[in-house]
């Protein structure tokens, strides 16, 4: 089977159920960004190595992203049913892993942090920012096709960006690399005592 079909040469692409949409539509932009994030997670997994303790959870996240993308690719007026799983427990899964990671860390932070530190931490930040962009595009898609963006998808994507932020910090903590601070959170600056 050939990979090329020539059907997209005019700037449209097929969506779930057989319809075609412009390649810059909110649906395609959103799925494209989540696909980009999924690819970066794949790179992160490759850098971590097969035996790393994060592999199982990251593999699940990749599969869940694929399932969510398939549901986002189905316009709500489509007559074709999508039988792919719906990872409705995704936000809870992220929260459990977040709590676990934070409980293992030796430090907390009241600062905005500069992304980076080491390669793994930087890749986690790449995942975080790509997922945040996908979340913004989800909101745009929700305005166009509200029934397509189910609550569990918004919650899962929102929690994923939090998760990758904590993963970046957990990696720095474990590696003993100092975080680069930018400035205190605003509420901390307001409550900071004035010193002369």
What can you see in these coordinates?
The protein is elongated. The chain has 196 residues and is mostly helical. It has one domain: Hypothetical Protein Ta1238, Chain: A (Up-down Bundle). The longest helix has 26 residues, at 119-144. Helix 1 packs antiparallel against helix 2 (55-72) and helix 1 (26-48) packs antiparallel against helix 4 (119-144). Strand 1 and strand 2 (20-22) form a beta hairpin. The termini are far apart. The protein has helices spanning 26-48, 55-72, 90-104, 119-144, 151-175, 186-191; strands at residues 12-14, 20-22, 111-113, 181-184. The strands form two sheets. Strands 1-2 form a two-stranded antiparallel ribbon.
Structural class: mainly alpha
Can you name the CATH architecture? Up-down Bundle
The helical percent reads 55-70%
**Parts with pLDDT < 50 across at least 5 consecutive residues:** none
Question: Could you name the key traits of this structure?
Answer:
196 residues; mainly alpha; Hypothetical Protein Ta1238, Chain: A; two-stranded antiparallel ribbon; two-stranded antiparallel sheet; 6 helices
């Amino acid at each position: 089977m050939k990979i090329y079909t020539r059907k997209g040469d005019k700037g449209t692409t097929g969506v779930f159920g057989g319809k075609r949409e412009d390649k810059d539509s909110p649906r395609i932009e959103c799925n494209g960004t989540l696909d980009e994030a999924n690819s970066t997670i794949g790179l992160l997994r490759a850098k971590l190595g097969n035996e790393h303790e994060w592999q199982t959870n990251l593999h699940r996240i990749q599969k869940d992203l694929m399932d969510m993308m398939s549901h986002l690719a189905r316009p709500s007026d489509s007559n074709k049913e999508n039988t792919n799983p719906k990872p409705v427990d995704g936000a809870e899964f992220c929260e459990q892993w977040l709590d676990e990671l934070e409980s293992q860390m030796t430090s907390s932070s009241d600062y905005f942090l500069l992304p980076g530190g080491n390669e793994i931490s930087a890749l986690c930040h790449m995942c975080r920012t790509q997922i945040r962009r996908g979340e913004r595009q989800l909101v745009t898609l929700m305005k166009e096709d509200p029934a397509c963006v189910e609550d569990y998808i918004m919650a899962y994507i929102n929690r994923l960006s939090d998760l990758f932020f904590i993963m970046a910090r957990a990696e720095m903590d474990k590696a003993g690399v100092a975080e680069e601070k930018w400035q205190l959170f605003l509420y901390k600056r307001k409550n900071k005592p004035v010193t002369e």
